[in-house]
Amino acid sequence: MKKSFDVVVIGTGEAGSAVAMRCRAAGRSVAIVDSRPFGGTCGLRGCDPKKVLVGAAEIIDRKRRGFGA
Predict the structure, then answer these.
(1) pTM, whole model, 2 decimals?
(2) Which residue of 3, 12, 34, 54 has the lowest C-beta tally within 10 Å?
């Protein structure tokens, strides 16, 4: 089976999805390729800044609830 596309997007993270949607809106045929589940690293596995912010928020929450650090 042979198919052709105007655009091939590698990765389904924030940037890949945005590019694919804009190209599709412009009338282009788009293929999206990713070896991992749809959504990218930040959405599914958490990027480093996200992990740091979540970790800090958890510490603050524990202190406020009186559970220590």
Answers:
(1) 0.53
(2) 3
Alpha helices by DSSP H, listed for the chain, are: 14-25, 40-44, 48-65
Backbone angles phi, psi at 46, to 5 degrees: 80, 120
Write down the mean pLDDT value for the chain. Answer: 82
pLDDT of 43: 59
In the structure encoding, which two tokens stand for residue 20, read together?
């694919």
What residues are paired with 1 via a beta bridge? none
How many residues in total does the chain contain?
A: 69
Exposure class string for 15-43: b at 16+ Cβ within 10 A, else e: ebbebbeebeeeeeebebeeeeeeebeee
